[in-house]
């Protein structure tokens, strides 16, 4: 298998559901003034992900970041209220500078997150699609997820800008 396209063949409940994907997904798009490689770098390096992952006001501690198809990503999100939220994700598909698919195999909030990077003049369009197993599950979280995903994209853009401007750690 080439390094350029790495894929872990998995069928998750999110993919197998008979309900239409568009009715159980939160879809976002954001233009970032950087190359796909610069955006992908912020998505593929644990220390950088820790700086931007999660809604506004949250911080992250990354415990494991095995960035390969089938690799586990374990982190704790620390909420602004002091609560900790342990998370487990698995990378299922990686195409450097183009695509990242993450499975969140939680028994109470299972979803698949697909991040596509598309070059645009002077930047990159980030397509963010978070798909839940059922329409009802998505509907129960839709307002929170919509806000949180916009904040994630804000924080990703800020991390990419931080890097492209040559800021120090």
Give a short overview.
The chain is of the alpha+beta class.
What does this entry look like structurally?
The structure is a single chain. The protein has 169 residues and is an alpha+beta fold. It has one domain: START domain (Alpha-D-Glucose-1,6-Bisphosphate, Chain A, domain 4). 30% of the residues lie in helices and 37% in strands. It is built from 4 helices and 8 strands, in the order E-H-E-H-H-E-E-E-E-E-E-H. The protein has helices at 13-16, 36-44, 46-52, 135-164, and strands spanning 6-7, 25-32, 59-65, 72-78, 84-95, 99-104, 111-120, 123-132. Strands 1, 2, 3, 4, 5, 6, 7 and 8 form an 8-stranded antiparallel β-sheet that branches. A hairpin with a 2-residue loop joins strand 7 (111-120) and strand 8. The longest helix has 30 residues, at 135-164. The chain is globular and about 40 Å long. Residues 1-13 have low confidence and may be disordered.
User: What is the number of beta strands?
Assistant: 8
Could you say what the CATH topology is called?
Alpha-D-Glucose-1,6-Bisphosphate, Chain A, domain 4
The percent range for helix content is 25-40%
CATH superfamily: START domain
Q: Please indicate the percent range of residues in DSSP E strands (runs of 2 or more).
A: 35-45%
| CATH level-1 class | Alpha Beta
């Amino acid at each position: 298998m080439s390094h350029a396209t790495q894929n872990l063949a998995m069928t998750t409940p999110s993919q197998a559901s008979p309900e239409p994907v568009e009715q159980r997904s939160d879809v976002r798009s954001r233009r970032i003034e950087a190359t796909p490689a610069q955006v992908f770098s912020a998505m593929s390096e644990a220390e950088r992900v820790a700086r931007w992952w999660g809604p506004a006001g949250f911080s992250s501690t990354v415990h494991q970041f095995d960035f390969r198809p089938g690799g586990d990503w374990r982190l704790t999100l620390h909420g602004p209220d002091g609560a900790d939220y342990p998370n487990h994700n698995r990378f299922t598909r990686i195409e450097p500078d183009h695509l990242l698919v993450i499975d969140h195999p939680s028994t109470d909030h299972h979803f698949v997150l697909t991040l596509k990077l598309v070059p645009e003049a002077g930047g990159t369009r980030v397509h963010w699609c978070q798909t839940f197993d059922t329409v009802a599950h998505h509907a129960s979280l839709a307002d929170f997820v919509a806000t949180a995903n916009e904040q994630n994209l804000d924080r990703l853009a800020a991390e990419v800008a931080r890097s492209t401007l040559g800021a120090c750690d």
